[in-house]
From TrEMBL:
This is Palmitoyltransferase. Residues 203-311 form the Palmitoyltransferase DHHC domain. GO terms for cellular component: Golgi apparatus. It is an enzyme of class 2 (transferase).
Length: 361
């Protein structure tokens, strides 16, 4: 780092023209924005050159204060940090706000999914959403639900262990995927478990050649293959257990509970949770946890079914509606080796074994 860069304060940066700029000062220089808005109000078509310049300018100015100079952040990565807290805070006001907030955000995610995949395929939006959800839910549980003094220490420890197990499985899933993508970037010939790289599958989202690809998980921001599918399934299991367990602990703390089978507490009457902000926030975080757990359970069931049938998700998505109703049994399944062998391939697969063959010059 040069002496000039060291002199930058936390809110300063060098813009596209390599001029020293300030986060607050950039709000006063909005020529590109003025031109775009003016053309829009007049009903005129915005030139492609102006669109590109406007997008580059907005992307360059979206920064956060940082030591040694303001750091640039992607707009799509910032969205979850704004949407999720706003959704939970709004939903905690009343029952109708809960329904409105959750349904609105749900429709937004459905609409934004295809948009981001087509326009920004390598977006971090969904992965940041996952991380933000983990942090927010755990923060609410520890600093809002725990002070109600209804959670036992051992219950909190069990939940923390489940969350830690999920994070470790998530890390293992991504690290194994990153190992494969780093290998595919090599200009050398590559033989992985006896397969030449020419037989690998190209991922349109992460733009890498991936061996034994099942699908690309945008929420984990990595491709799922035979080499990390086991840790992916474990991460789903631990996430479902943590979400359901935390939601039950939360609901039995803020609602009137009842005993089931003389040992298990379940929520009964939750009609008074919106009378206090802390109760409402805890309640909607538990509802959000349950909804996410249901979605993850559906994904887990789909993965279990496809592994048992020997059909990768990439092939399943190409099947016709009739074939899906028949569970793909009426189609050719070249990857099917029988249920036991299918699961052995997933459960016994660890780090990929590869050989790099350098090209002769």
């Amino acid at each position: 780092m040069s002496d000039e860069e060291r002199d930058l304060c936390c809110c300063e940066y060098y813009d596209l023209t390599n001029n020293r700029n300030h986060i607050l000062a950039c709000l006063c220089n909005c020529t590109d924005l003025d031109e775009a808005v003016d053309s829009f109000l007049k009903g005129q078509t915005i030139a492609e050159e102006n669109k590109t310049r406007f997008q580059n300018t907005m992307r360059d100015r979206l920064r956060i204060p940082w030591i040694g100079g303001a750091r640039q952040v992607a707009f799509d990565s910032v969205l979850p940090l704004m949407i999720l807290p706003l959704m939970l805070l709004t939903a905690s006001l009343s029952l109708w706000w809960t329904v409105f907030s959750f349904s609105t955000v749900g429709m937004f995610l459905l609409l934004i999914f295809n948009f981001f995949i087509k326009t920004i395929p390598r977006t971090k939006f969904f992965f940041v959403w996952t991380i933000t959800s983990i942090i927010l839910l755990y923060f609410i549980f520890e600093f809002v639900v725990i002070p109600f003094l209804k959670i036992l220490i051992e219950e909190n420890v069990i939940l923390s262990v489940l969350i830690f197990a999920f994070i470790m499985c998530l890390y293992l899933t991504k690290s194994r995927a990153d190992q494969l993508t780093s290998l595919s970037e090599s200009e050398s010939d590559l033989i992985l478990n006896g397969k030449n790289i020419e037989g690998f599958y190209s991922c349109k989202i992460c733009d890498h050649r991936i061996p034994d690809k099942d699908h690309h998980c945008v929420w984990f921001d990595c491709c799922i293959t035979n080499h990390n599918q086991c840790s992916f399934l474990l991460s789903l299991i631990f996430a479902i257990l943590a979400l359901l367990y935390s939601s039950n602990l939360t609901l039995t703390s803020v609602c009137h509970p009842f005993e089931f089978a003389k040992s298990i507490l379940l929520p009964d009457d939750c009609s008074e949770v919106y009378y206090q902000f802390e109760l409402g926030l805890s309640f909607v975080s538990a509802i959000y946890s349950i909804l996410v757990a249901i979605l993850l359970w559906l994904v887990l069931m789909q993965q279990i079914m496809l592994v048992s049938l020997g059909i990768p998700l990439r092939d399943w998505n190409k099947l016709s509606f009739t074939s899906k109703l028949c569970l793909g049994l009426n189609t050719n399944r070249p990857h099917n080796k029988g249920i036991i062998n299918n699961w052995s391939k997933i459960l016994c697969q660890t780090s990929p074994k590869y050989t790099v063959l350098h090209r002769d010059v």
